[in-house]
Amino acid sequence: MTTHDSDHVAHIHHELHSHLPSEPALRAKALESLLVEKGMVDPAAVDAWVERYSEEIGPRNGARIIARAWVDPEFRRRLLADAAEAIKELGYEHDHLIAVENTPTTHNLVCCTLCSCYPNALLGMPPTWYKMAAYRARAVRDPRGVLAEFGVELGGDVEVRVWDSTAELRFLVVPERPAGTEGWDEERLADLVTRNAMIGTARDLTLSTRGAG
């Protein structure tokens, strides 16, 4: 008689299904396919809008919060003490939000090991890689290796802190303000803030990162 370890079987089941889109996503994809088939939608246009929303329009709320923190030390203090309350000053609502700050000796990385919990209201749509099991698991086990794959090489003097989001708790990384931006207004500064920087898979924002995601 063949026996199975229930925990092992459950793990396999989870791994197999963790790569599948959610039911709403599958319905949306089916609808898109039908509209494309009937010639009512250009798939390239859909992809372009999704990319623009996920990398530019969506993260704009978070970018404005970061820009305010860069120019207003008191707001920055309130943001780090109670992010959910502080962002209300800018007209945003996101309960159970924690802001974590990068420094020359600290780097923060956000993941969600259980599924793909993510502050959509502030960062827009989560990128595909954020939802993948490979990122969710490796971000905890090997954060420096994951960061290196995103082009972030950290010295041994930089501590990496990994924050695991849940359904009740979300995180927002406050990146360091780029040098050479003294005197810039908030709108211009917000243009420098990328989605990945607010997740923690980017670190050194420069004047060349404008519009990057």
Q: How much of the polypeptide forms β-strand, as a percent range?
A: 5-15%
The radius of gyration is 19 Å
Which structural class do you get from the secondary structure elements?
Answer: mainly alpha
Report the sheet with the most strands, covering strand number, pairing sense and barrel closure: 2 strands, parallel
Keywords:
single chain; 213 residues; mainly alpha; Nitrile Hydratase, Chain A; two-stranded parallel ribbon; two-stranded parallel sheet; 12 helices; 48% helix
Account of the 3D structure:
The structure is a single chain. The chain is mainly alpha-helical. It has a single domain, classed as Nitrile hydratase alpha /Thiocyanate hydrolase gamma (Nitrile Hydratase, Chain A, Alpha-Beta Complex), CATH 3.90.330. Helices cover 48% and strands 10% of the residues.
Q: What is this structure, in a nutshell?
A:
With 213 residues, the protein is mainly alpha-helical.
SSE arrangement:
Layout: H1 6-18, H2 23-37, H3 43-57, H4 60-71, H5 73-81, H6 83-86, E1 97-101, E2 106-111, H7 120-123, H8 128-131, H9 133-141, H10 143-149, E3 159-164, E4 170-174, H11 186-190, H12 195-199
Parallel strand pairs: 1-4, 2-3
Helix pairs in contact: 4-5, 9-10
